[in-house]
Amino acid sequence: MKKFVTALAALAVGATVLAGPVAAQAEEKKFTIALIPGLTTDGFYITMRKGAEAAAKAVGAELVFQGAPEFNAVLQVPVLDAIIARKPDAILIAPTDKVQLVEPLKKAHAAGIPVITVDTFIGTGNYQTGSGDADFPLSYIASDNVLGGRIAARALAKAVGEKGKVYVSNVKPGVSTTDQREEGFKAEMKNYPGIEVLDTQFNDDDANKAATQLQSVFARNPDLDGVFGANLFSALGAANGVKQAGQSGKIKVVAFDAPPSIVDNIKTGLVDIAIAQHPAEIGFFGTMAAYAHLTGQSIPTLIGTGFTVMDKNNVDNPDVAKFIYKD
Ligand code: T6T
Questions:
Q1: Does the predicted TM-score (pTM) go above 0.85?
Q2: N or C: which end of the chain has fewer CB within 10 A?
Q3: DSSP-based three-state secondary structure for 164
Q4: Which among 175, 177, 203, 262 is the best mutation to test ligand 1's pocket, defined by most ligand atoms within 8 Å of the CB?
């Protein structure tokens, strides 16, 4: 009798084991989540992709990463159209312009594809409010870029001894992130009456242009004291311009973003501070938010990720160095 009971129990266990995966397959759809970066060859978005892939793996989703070779709305829209045609279950996108991506993203929304923006936003970035025509994305996952600009201003003010001339090297107007960094930077600089903020130089995300601009600004202002590079290419270019002008260590550089090359520049003293975003977190939580929505959970309309401020005293600390972007 005992043998019979044991055999029955074994059968029951066997049945459960067999039924488990079959039932799970029926219930669990493998979701496809598309991630469209600002551009594909930027360490910031490459690192974001790694975080997104880790989350996709954890929930058994497929992550499709597709983007344009330059940070440019005209190039990003056809990529978005191609993704919409593939009908993914959700789209994560870093829109390259607050206004120009609204209409193209409405097409995704109209096709019933949930949209979440990562890093940058469209409209005002306040989503699901019921007002305006750009509030349809479900969530915005990003750094607090106004705060990042304020941190940059404080660091640059300290580096130049709270007096002198500085300027912002920026991408182009209309990009939510870099607009907000400049806004935060200028607002914070009002606390330093001894510092004059010169006109912003826009470089179109071209580091060579940023380097040339640094030299022109320096030629017009031989007493230039500092520059804030408001994103990776602006900062790299501005730092190279300082080096080419023979002003390394004299014109102070505060960099937004933390690719390995900026870290090398911190070590040589060319760059004073780098403000690292946490792009892997943005990718991870963006993907998780999409998955949560697709499986019937509610999600926050805003998820904020942090910063790590790097300088020559802490950049070798593993807790800091882990935020250096991947190539
Ligand atoms: O600074 C990041 C990103 O946050 C911004 O929106 C665009 O530029 C970067 O990708 C760096 O190149």
A1: yes
A2: N
A3: strand
A4: 177
User: Ligand 1: does its nearest atom lie under 6 Å from the Cβ of 89?
Assistant: no
What would the pLDDT profile of 284-306 be if each residue is shown by its tens digit? Answer: 999 999 999 999 999 999 999 99
pLDDT of 19 strictly over 50: no
Domain boundaries, the chain: 2-143+278-305, 145-276+312-321
Going by alpha carbons, the residue nearest to atom 8 of ligand 1 is 231
Give the CATH number of domain 2-143+278-305: 3.40.50.2300
C-beta 213 within 6 A of ligand 1? no
Backbone angles phi, psi at 239, to 5 degrees: -65, -40
Rounded-to-integer distance, Cα 219 and Cα 245, Å = 9
233 C-beta closer than 6 A to ligand 1: yes
Cβ pair 199, 165 in contact under 8 A: no
Is the fold of 2-143+278-305 the same as that of 145-276+312-321?
A: yes
What's the pLDDT tens digit per position in 214-248? Answer: 999 999 999 999 999 999 999 999 999 999 999 99
* DSSP for 30-70, written as a single string: --EEEEE-S-TT-HHHHHHHHHHHHHHHHHT-EEEE---SS
Q: What is the mean pLDDT of the chain?
A: 93
CATH of domain 145-276+312-321: 3.40.50.2300
Burial class (CB in 10 A: 0-12, 13-18, 19+), 186: middle
Q: Supply the residue whose CA is at minimum distance from atom 2 of ligand 1.
A: 231
